[in-house]
Amino acid sequence: MAARLLGLTSVLALVAGTAQADFFNRVASFAVVDNMAEGEDRSRETSPEIIAATPDGMTLVYTDSPLGVVGMIDITDPANPAPLGNIEMPGEPTSVAVVGRRAYVGVNTSESYTEPSGQIAVIDIDAKAIVATCELTGQPDSVAVDDAGSFIAIAIENERDEDLGDGRVPQMPAGALDMFDLAGNTAECGTRRTADLTGLAGVAPEDPEPEFVDINGLGETVVTMQENNHIAVVARDGSVVSHFSAGTVDLEGVDTAEEGALTFDDTLMAVPREPDSVKWIDDDHFATANEGDMDGGSRGWTIFRKDGTVVYESGLEFEYEVVKIGHYPEDRSGNKGVEPESIETASFGGVPMVFVGSERGSVVGVYDITDPASPRLHQMLPSGIGPEGYVTIPERNLLISANETDDAGPRAHVMVFEFGAEAPVYPHLTSDGITQPNGAPVGWGAISGQVAEGEETIWAINDSFYGMQPTIFRIDVTQTPARITDYIRITREGQPAQKLDLEGITLDGEGGFWVASEGRTDRVIPHALYHVGADGEIEQEIGLPAELMAVERRFGFEGITKVGDWLWMAVQREWGDDPANHAKLVAYNLETAEWGAVHYPKAEPATGWVGLSEITAHGDFFYVIERDNQIGADAVTKKIYRIPASEMVPAPLGGALPVVSKEEVRDLIPDLLSTGGYVLDKVEGLSISPSGTAWVSTDNDGVDDHSGETMFFPIGGL
Question: Residues 534, 512: contact at Cβ < 8 Å?
Answer without folding.
Answer: yes
